Amino acid sequence: QVQLLESGGGSVQTGGSLRLSCATYGHGCGAWFRQQVPGKEREGVASIFGDDARTRYADSVRARFNISQDNAKSTLYLEMNDLTPDDTAMYYCAARRTDCGGFLWESHYDDWGQGTQVTVVS
Questions:
Q1: Hey, what long-range contacts does 7-12 have (CB within 8 A, 24 or more apart)?
Q2: Pick from 6, 26, 10, 33: which is nearest to 98 by CA?
């Protein structure tokens, strides 16, 4: 299993922005998940997949979050805008090595990072 490495989390005020990064991604098929309560199922928020870098978003973040990757597909990003306290969570990046469908469920992905905390204060 490849260990991914997230960075960019922190504390921000409501309405602010953060950009998360995920290093050693290298697959062209990845996603961001978040876990708002420890031990609960992680929620898929955005994915990127295919040679044409198609994207998929959860309804809760659509139009506010943007997933992207660098040209070498070595780093995955999540740009988060207009943040609210409901976005407070541990954010994880995930990657799948083959047969990518860009689905927003945990079992679709092979490799995971250890998470980066995002806290939005009002």
A1: 7/116, 8/116, 9/91, 9/116, 9/117, 9/118, 10/117, 10/118, 10/119, 11/119, 11/120, 11/121, 12/83, 12/118, 12/119, 12/120, 12/121
A2: 26
Q: Which amino acid is at 37?
A: V
Q: State the Cα–Cα distance between residues 77 and 45, nearest whole angstrom.
A: 12
Nearest 5 degrees, angle CA 42-CA 47-CA 50?
Answer: 145
**What's the CA gap between 23 and 77, in Å, rounded?**
9
Helices of type H across 7-106: none
**What is the spatial distance between Cα 83 and Cα 114, in angstroms, rounded to a whole number?**
22
Beta strands in the chain (DSSP E): 5-7, 10-13, 18-23, 30-35, 43-49, 54-57, 65-69, 76-80, 89-95, 111-112, 116-121
pLDDT per residue over 31-82, tens digit each?
999 999 988 999 999 999 988 999 999 999 999 999 999 888 889 999 999 9
Cα(20)–Cα(120) distance, integer angstroms: 14
